[in-house]
Design brief:
By secondary structure, the chain is an alpha+beta fold. The chain is built from eight helices and seven strands. It is an enzyme of class 2 (transferase).
Length: 372
């Protein structure tokens, strides 16, 4: 019994001594490469076992033959432990180096290096890094598109303001020189020009408020059916001048109640209908429909006969300042659809456009009052 106690005490003492040395080594290398800390952490338990075996062999007075066999097995185990420790350490260090290179390359959106042999944790981190890079690339692409849209908007607005201002200056000079025979007609022309410029400035102000996401008016329960009826009545005179047939299709027994800002929604839907009438040729038709989906959301659709939009431009239709090709025309500042999108999104709704038949279909989905 006394021998067992001595062996147990020596074993515990040896393990504590080796563990203390390992802890000191880890403290000394805490700011060094992780390679050394992994080697120390992997070899310390093995060395503790080796020391205790040697002590026990010495205390038990084994024969020379038995002692050599045990020591030989211990040496082989140490070699295997050192080799495996170095192999694992090399893989982890290589993986962390690749991960660090990938993080460094995020600024330039460089793809992280890939390859087999990564531990599961580092592989997951590398996958997250790749996902982050893709998101950064998308964000940078959106930023470039937004910058391009702003440049186009400034260019269009400069043209839209400079041309009427030049006309007003010429008209004022002509009135001052007394070379205008029809003074009342000239004044009406000046008033019309000022009205167009005022409308443009109003659109800019409205777009700014919508993009800021600030509530413009108190939300209340309203009827989409009544809103569409008002929009149709306001747009009918312009449709007749364009020789465009405006058709409204509404449910008979559903007022399509939602919670929202009636003025903002009238403007948004009105912009869609006005845009459809403007780009539909004489003899064409614009159809305005509304219905409630199975989920309870209200869907408003505006279909026109504009001839369609190129597929590559469908994603830019709602960008401020976008005017498209000649098929869509070049009048207006290109703010109406951007304002419509801002209003719909401020109501937590969805707006989309697609080519349908001989024209386009703009679709607005407004959620249930509970969702708003």
């Amino acid at each position: 019994m006394t021998d067992l106690l001595i062996i147990a005490a020596m074993t515990i003492l040896a393990c504590l001594l080796v563990a203390g040395i390992g802890w000191i080594a880890l403290r000394l290398t805490r700011h060094a490469s992780i390679r050394y800390q992994l080697i120390i952490a992997g070899l310390t338990p093995v060395l503790a076992v080796a020391v205790t075996v040697i002590i026990n062999v010495w205390l038990m007075f084994l024969s020379r033959h038995d002692s050599l066999v045990i020591l030989f097995a211990l040496a082989v185990s140490l070699i295997v432990a050192v080799g495996l420790s170095l192999l694992v350490t090399r893989r982890i260090v290589a993986g962390t180096s690749r991960l660090g290179a990938g993080i460094t390359g995020l600024a330039g959106l460089q793809p992280p290096s890939t390859g087999p042999g990564l531990p599961a944790e580092l592989a997951d981190a590398m996958a997250d890094l790749t996902s982050t890079r893709d998101k950064l690339a998308e964000a940078r692409a959106r930023e470039r598109a937004a910058q391009q849209a702003r440049q186009e908007l400034v260019r269009h607005l400069s043209h839209d303001l400079r041309t009427p201002l030049a006309g007003l200056r010429a008209m004022a000079e002509a009135l001052e020189d007394g070379i205008v025979a029809d003074v009342p007609g000239a004044m009406r022309q000046i008033q019309a020009t000022v009205s167009r410029m005022d409308s443009l400035v109003g659109d800019l102000f409205e777009l700014s408020r919508v993009q800021d996401g600030l509530p413009q008016h108190e939300r209340r329960m309203l009827s989409v059916t009544e809103l569409i009826t008002d929009v149709a009545e306001q747009t009918e005179p312009a449709a007749r001048r364009q020789q465009v047939r405006l058709t409204v299709d509404l449910p008979d027994h559903d007022r399509l109640a939602i919670l929202g800002d009636d003025d903002a929604l009238v403007r948004a839907i009105g912009n869609l209908v006005t845009n459809a009438v403007r780009h539909t040729g004489p003899g064409g038709a614009v159809t305005l429909t509304a219905s409630r989906s199975a989920g309870g959301a209200v869907t408003v659709a505006v279909s026109d006969g504009c001839g369609g939009i190129p597929e590559q431009d469908l994603g830019r239709v709602f960008d401020a300042g976008w005017r498209g090709d000649e098929a869509r025309g070049t009048d207006g500042a290109g703010l109406g659809l951007a304002i419509a999108r801002g209003v719909v999104e401020s109501h937590r709704g969805r707006i989309a456009v697609s080519n349908a038949g001989s024209g386009c279909r703009f679709e607005v989905e407004l959620p249930l009052p509970q969702a708003s």
